[in-house]
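ping. complex inputs:
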Amino acid sequence: MAEVLQFCFSGLTVGAVYALVALGFTIIYNASDVVNFAQGEFVMLGGMVTVALAAAGMPLPVAAVAAVGVAAVVGVALHRLAIEPARGASPVGLIIITIGASIFIRGIAQVVFDKQFHKLPAFSGDTPFAVLGATILPQSLWVLGGTAAIVVGLHVFFERTLIGKAVAATAANRLAARLAGINTTSMMTLSFALAGAIGAVAGILVTPITLTSYNVGTLLALKGFAAGMLGGIGNPLGAVLGGLMLGLIEAFGAGYLSSAYKDGIAFVVILVVLFAFPRGLIGKRSAERV
Amino acid sequence: MRALLSSRWTTLGLLCLVIAALPLVFPSGYYYRVAALVWISAIAAVGLNIFMGYAGQVSLGHAGFFGIGAYAVAIGPARFGLNSWLCIFLGVFLSAALAWLVGRPILRLRGHYLAIATLGLGFLIALVLANEARWTGGPDGTAVPRLTIAGARLMEPVTWYWISGGLLTLGTALALNLENSAVGRALRALHDSEIAAALAGIDVARHKLRAFVIAAVYASLAGSALALFDGFITPDAAGFLRSIELVAMVVVGGIGSTAGSIVGAGLLVTLPQILAVFVEYEQIALGLIIMVVMIFLRRGIVPSARRLIVRRAP
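pong. complex structure:
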């Protein structure tokens, strides 16, 4: 029982990070139909910029906020300089552009920072709590709490604020949104900024547990993409559930089956799920129009 | 002019000319090595273009088949004492069988779902190659016994330049021939509209599967060639980044254009070699160039150039 609980804790912690990456994917995908393979680089930037600024003597909270800002600006630049000029390119072409962007960002990080692994101090100490025989790190609570706060914050943003509704309208129907006087290009840029910021938060929260380096982005992007697909692409709730599920599957798979194949179990599950539900678990069962 | 540029004989003729003429300007053996690497990658790219360009599907895991071909010629001779030549065919058979088995359920998926499924397939193959160290030597890779013809071991870059160049010419001729066959027309029809193609009596599922298997065979052959040429192979050959590289070759060169796949392979193989002078900035430059080409030459290099020439021509 304690073991099961322990796997749950570690799975949910990792899953929360996948969920945030998948959420970033979803926000950008909904606003602009772009599958952004550079999403993982935002997570890397969040961790690495915070580490660098903190090492330069900045207090941790200030460094973290600055890192979120940097990632948001990179998101804006990605949209304005790479995605927007390529408007009308094929979906695969856009994917290649975001992959080019992720190679580019990784290259810059490698030059500006270094190739070492870096750690941040845990926000509230390293003394684990004991829960029913299992233990949970305070930092895991930060990750889970931060994820929950972002999910709630996004919900409020999209449902209660005018600008959030404008983004949601852009996602729902671009032409109609433009007819209603919404500047859809700005809303797309805002979505990229938002996705960048969310990714950075994930990176900052998880760095005390998993460490970070210039190249952590690729695998996270794959897992986040997978999580988003598991839930059904374009569905924010699906992205979060998909992320948490993926984290749990990995934790239990690593614990009971094989830790060497931990990264593979997730993809086996995705293949099986897609065979059964070709549009993801929560995807729309839509008929095709001719 | 238009007819000349779109003729398959032009592509094939130019390719033969380039392969035959390049050695005239090569100052050292190093150039043969890079050129051989280009031809080998181009074989995989030309095959992937059949699946992506002709049939309009997407595979983000194609390096998996490349890896199967590469490890077939590494494991077969070293662990089972099999003949290397036989192992090339075993690799092709394994790749084709896997593509056929997995392709049946996977190819029902569309767009991004197909992308993640193929990505997962490639990821799993690379993971198995990295983890089954008893057979594959693990993440550090394994040595590959050299190919021999009549007792002579093939390891000189010049030799491999001609072998891979010949293989690429053959692969290109077959791909161009396929494009203009009934199967090629069926693939293009289902690319435009699966429903319209089905209404026209085309077995959509079977044709997609056929394109997938053909692309897997090309990748497997290219993988075997690379392993035998380098004499060493690591699981990175089957990894996600390698898959992306193959897709980038097809798309940057011009999706749907066989000549484009070869040009794309040339660009993406030689660029890192040129940029290696600036080790620090290699990734920055590579990412930048991929983005710039995709933004300004949206159709890819070869189709864009072809349009330019056709427009200029009287």
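The radius of gyration of chain B is 19 Å.
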